[in-house]
Amino acid sequence: MSVDKKTVAKIAKLARIRVDEAQQEALSGELNQILGWVEQLSELDTSGVEPMTSVVEMTQPLREDVVNDGGYVDRVTKNAPESAHGFYAVPKVVE
Amino acid sequence: MSYRIKGNTGEWEVVIGLEVHAQVISNSKLFSGAATAFGAEPNHQVSLVDAAMPGMLPVLNKEVVAQGVRTGLGLRAKINMKSVFERKNYFYADLPQGYQISQFLEPIVGEGIITLDLDGGETRDVGIERMHLEQDAGKSIHDQHPTQSYIDLNRSGVALMEIVSRPDLRSPEEAGAYLRKLRSILRYLGTCDGNMDEGSMRADVNVSVRKPGEELGTRTETKNVNSIRFVQQSIEFEAKRQIKLIEDGEKIVQETRLFDPSTGTTRSMRSKEEAHDYRYFPDPDLLPLVLDPAWVEEIKKTIPELPDEKKARFIKDFGLSAYDAGILVADRDRAAFYEAVAEGRDAKLAANWVMGDYFGALNKSGLSLDASPVTAQQLGGLIGLISDDTISGRTAKEVFEAMWESGKDADVIVEEKGLKQISDTSAIEAAIDEIIANNPGQVEGYKGGNERLIGWFVGQTMKATGGKANPGMVNALLKKKLAE
Amino acid sequence: MSNLTHLTIADALAGMEKGDFTARELTEAHVKAVEETRGLNAYIVETPEIALKQADASDKRRASGEAGVMEGIPIAMKDLFCTEGTQTTAASHILEGFVPTYESTVSGNLWNAGAVMLGKSNLDQFAMGSANITSHFGNVINPWQREGSSAELTPGGSSGGSAATVAARAAMAATGTDTGGSIRQPAAFSGIVGLKPTYGRCSRWGVIAFASSLDQAGPMTRSVRDAAIMLEAMAGYDAKDSTSVNLPVPRYQDALTGDIRGLKVGIPREYRIDGTPVEIEKAWEQGIEWLRAAGAEPVEISLPHTKYALPTYYIIAPAECSSNLARYDGVRYGQRVEGRSLDDMYENTRAAGFGDEVKRRILIGTYVLSAGYYDAYYNKARQVRTLIANDFKKAYESVDVILTPTAPSPAFGIGEKMDDPIAMYLNDVFTVPASLAGLPGISIPSGLSSEGTPLGLQLLGRAFDEETLLRVAGVMEQAAGFSALPQLIAGGK
Ligand SMILES: [Mg+2]
Ligand SMILES: [Zn+2]
């Protein structure tokens, strides 16, 4: 499996990180190097091995259904780069 | 009577699958303690978790899990004792985490069944593929500013159930019946209020077309349609659009579309055009959800009698038609109302009154059941008076109107207005004797073979008794006396 | 009181209790030491006003008999912990200017225990790195130098600022977080003690996430006892973290009995890796001898999947980080770079806001989770992780702790290994396996390298058995008698 420039552009798009043409080449080299290295896992036979979801040998704890949070619009919008009338503001989205 | 669309090349079959997002009834959100109530000021029901502040972590709401289990039981579905929350990764302005916590490979509910009640009392089973729990996104508001969209995260993190049907539906009508039945079941269970105008229930509509008997065609998914009528319109539009494309020699593109209620049409969603790659993986902030079998048993015990069972019972115990029973059970409160009316009374008569005059009056006055001026006991009282011949069916309508006006009991109104039916033989006989004595000509005519004159005699008798004579008795007595 | 900054926490607590000095005096000495060691770039933000205010409050509490476990102790807070009212950046540009309106559970626990905040310590950006060279706020300099050289060395990472300031006697202790070795490796490079507790022991609530299934907070101190004291303050069940484990927090100091007779110490054969410098091997042998001399029994064990731990880690950690860092999108907090459309704004913001290593890991993580590659990479890595955890489970059937080197080399020069990400990743070869298994580990300074820089030995324990770990560490600390001081130290050497 080899990551070409096109693939770099595709995953950069998925990750919403602007990567210009010039960087794509260099990144494809770096990513290939890392992926080539991690691919050594393929030499291990893992058939029948349960993939680990969590190292904590517990199941999901459950919370009681009570309203005990929220109600502080200032605290959640205080750091917003742009906000108006209690909303966060972003460049207009066309659906 | 299957639904077919005629194209230039013959008849087409429509294949429909629905993914319904139903908001779970709970006080707080799926993974945070913020409130879920509808209509709050922007960002006033947002916790640090809902706003995806750095370092914030989700903790699962127990009641939402219980609601999910209830719903699964109500859909006669398999409850998965172990399920896993995964992250669905994508960027959107109203998705603060950059992912939606959902369930993917291991949902909480597996396969189930919904029985549709179709016209004429027919039923049809539709398969449920799965149901999972997930977070709702926030809301983007696009029309408040010329160059900006505004983001409100009040809905962000509210618990949804996504209920996925098999592609078993074949017409807009069936899709409507499916949604109505699903909504009815959720309301019976108390797991979703089903208010489509408030967005508590939205459907993603998957539509494809094919020639009957052929392989499934390529489908499109119309997102977030928020009324049953719109769902039906979108199916019809989409089916016709696809048929035209295919007949014009073009290919259907598998894509996400948007329904425009003002035109009844669908269009491709530009923002979703780019290939999806949601990169699902188990959320490492959460652990596998393992249900305690004893808890599931406890929940099972709280499941109420659901529409299908209730319908069967109404047919069996009350002798109702499938059609009538279907209408009566569609709404849990209305079904309960009917049962209270029918309790110890003529069940069929009760059904006629509840579905006829009573629901009619409710609709006309725009009142809900709990705001109605006439209680089930009162309506039952009225039906009791009809059954024991205290009043006639015709008089009953007058009494009912008065009850609706005044809120008084039927017997009080009958008493006040003196509407009691005369069932006293001697009183009716006296009136008849007088009419026969005073109208020898008519008597002659009747006896001479003009039997239609009986109607005239009945009218006269009713007139003489102020309309209160028991019509059955009048008839019988007249025939007897005129034969003498 | 010239030497207040050289005290251990334990001695400082005793000194304040006896009335030899106040928290205010102790804090003033440290505030001054922080200023003197600014050249290390160990802090992103210094908070002397907060420190002095907290110190005064601490003195009042002590006077009224309400002293906490860390009462009056000035510490550095890794800038990965959200601190209410104080900028928290994860050493990134994208979070520059972000002032949390909430306090992380662990930092809150420390303030409740009486600790005093000197500042927010520098780190590798989003805790991604092993040399503290990926911070948006510049490299951290190790206070240690090679003999006869003033070349700048790395303090290790990602908790490099924490390690440097503790080593330089500018903070009595510091918080760290460890995802694949980020507490233990910098502790080894800087000649201090670093303890990564069992996953689930310290709450992750309010700690900026790197890889959620691995991240764990822990103490960085100059003695094993101090680590025990500080862990007691940091640890505890937190209902706000679903992966927090509900177990009582012991008084860890009580575990320091000095008696390890009969304990079995596992020596994993697979940790003898080709190319490891001889002096690292020798330090390890020395450690084995110390423990044997104290009555423990070294046992050779096998952790057969060790060599797969690093590649496994470099799939799982980037996968989780690619998702964890999606929230930095310029909408609700942090930096924003405008764009013509929403997507444009996202792409500009994230391109400008993240450093190269962070981007690299996000891209790797995005790739290994993407359609068609999930099974070959991510799922495979999760399976190998199971095998690695099973290796440890099996080993702990026959041993009580495991002894290994902490890092495959002493501190290296800033600028070395920079152009080769994999060479950099290899720093964590000894620390990553236990991280994947969620097990506790501690690094203890064991001596100096031939270059005159510190070397560390690592002890690994059973899940939630930090007590045995501390007990053995205490014995080893005694035996090592490490007392060398770094060159770049507050007040001069
Ligand atoms: Mg869907
Ligand atoms: Zn969904």
Automatic annotation (TrEMBL), chain A:
The cross-references to InterPro entries, in alphabetical order and at most eight, read: Asp/Glu-ADT_sf_sub_c (IPR036113), GatC (IPR003837)
Q: Which UniProt keywords apply?
A: ATP-binding, Ligase, Nucleotide-binding, Protein biosynthesis
The record lists the catalysed reaction(s) as:
L-aspartyl-tRNA(Asn) + L-glutamine + ATP + H2O = L-asparaginyl-tRNA(Asn) + L-glutamate + ADP + phosphate + 2 H(+); L-glutamyl-tRNA(Gln) + L-glutamine + ATP + H2O = L-glutaminyl-tRNA(Gln) + L-glutamate + ADP + phosphate + H(+)
| Pfam families noted in UniProt | GatC (PF02686)
EC assignment: 6.3.5.-
Which HAMAP family does the annotation name? GatC
Function noted in UniProt: Allows the formation of correctly charged Asn-tRNA(Asn) or Gln-tRNA(Gln) through the transamidation of misacylated Asp-tRNA(Asn) or Glu-tRNA(Gln) in organisms which lack either or both of asparaginyl-tRNA or glutaminyl-tRNA synthetases. The reaction takes place in the presence of glutamine and ATP through an activated phospho-Asp-tRNA(Asn) or phospho-Glu-tRNA(Gln).
The subunit field of the Swiss-Prot or TrEMBL record says: Heterotrimer of A, B and C subunits.
- What's this protein's family per the entry? Belongs to the GatC family.
Q: What is this protein called?
A: Aspartyl/glutamyl-tRNA(Asn/Gln) amidotransferase subunit C
Please give the organism: Kiloniella laminariae
Q: What is the lineage of its organism?
A: Bacteria, Pseudomonadati, Pseudomonadota, Alphaproteobacteria, Rhodospirillales
UniProtKB/TrEMBL annotation, chain B:
Which family does this protein fall into? Belongs to the GatB/GatE family. GatB subfamily.
Supply the alphabetized keyword list. ATP-binding, Ligase, Nucleotide-binding, Protein biosynthesis
Q: Which reaction does it catalyse?
A: L-glutamyl-tRNA(Gln) + L-glutamine + ATP + H2O = L-glutaminyl-tRNA(Gln) + L-glutamate + ADP + phosphate + H(+); L-aspartyl-tRNA(Asn) + L-glutamine + ATP + H2O = L-asparaginyl-tRNA(Asn) + L-glutamate + ADP + phosphate + 2 H(+)
Answer yes or no on keyword Oxidoreductase: no
- Its top-level enzyme class, in one word, is ligase
Ranges of residues in domain Asn/Gln amidotransferase: 336-482
The protein's matches in SUPFAM superfamilies, at most eight in alphabetical order, are given as: GatB/YqeY motif, Glutamine synthetase/guanido kinase
- SMART domains in alphabetical order: GatB_Yqey
Q: What is this protein called?
A: Aspartyl/glutamyl-tRNA(Asn/Gln) amidotransferase subunit B
What InterPro entries would the database entry show? Asn/Gln-tRNA_amidoTrfase_suB/E (IPR017959), Asn/Gln-tRNA_Trfase_suB/E_cat (IPR006075), Asn/Gln_amidotransferase (IPR018027), Asn/Gln_tRNA_amidoTrase-B-like (IPR003789), GatB (IPR004413), GatB_C_1 (IPR042114), GatB_Yqey_C_2 (IPR023168), Gln-tRNA_amidoTrfase_suB_CS (IPR017958)
Describe, as the record does, how this protein assembles with itself and its partners.
Answer: Heterotrimer of A, B and C subunits.
Function of the molecule: Allows the formation of correctly charged Asn-tRNA(Asn) or Gln-tRNA(Gln) through the transamidation of misacylated Asp-tRNA(Asn) or Glu-tRNA(Gln) in organisms which lack either or both of asparaginyl-tRNA or glutaminyl-tRNA synthetases. The reaction takes place in the presence of glutamine and ATP through an activated phospho-Asp-tRNA(Asn) or phospho-Glu-tRNA(Gln).
Enzyme Commission no: 6.3.5.-
UniProtKB/TrEMBL annotation, chain C:
Domain Amidase, residue spans: 25-470
Its UniProt entry gives the catalysed reaction(s) as: L-glutamyl-tRNA(Gln) + L-glutamine + ATP + H2O = L-glutaminyl-tRNA(Gln) + L-glutamate + ADP + phosphate + H(+)
Q: Which domain of life is it from?
A: Bacteria
Q: Name the keywords, alphabetized.
A: ATP-binding, Ligase, Nucleotide-binding, Protein biosynthesis
Instruction: Name the active site residues.
Output: 78, 158, 182
Question: Which Enzyme Commission number(s) are listed?
Answer: 6.3.5.7
Judged by the first EC level, this protein's enzyme class is ligase
InterPro entries named in the record:
Amidase (IPR000120), Amidase_CS (IPR020556), Amidase_dom (IPR023631), AS_sf (IPR036928), GatA (IPR004412)
Q: So what family is this one in? A: Belongs to the amidase family. GatA subfamily.
User: Function of this protein?
Assistant: Allows the formation of correctly charged Gln-tRNA(Gln) through the transamidation of misacylated Glu-tRNA(Gln) in organisms which lack glutaminyl-tRNA synthetase. The reaction takes place in the presence of glutamine and ATP through an activated gamma-phospho-Glu-tRNA(Gln).
Subunit architecture: Heterotrimer of A, B and C subunits.
**This chain belongs to which protein, by name?**
Glutamyl-tRNA(Gln) amidotransferase subunit A
Gene label: gatA
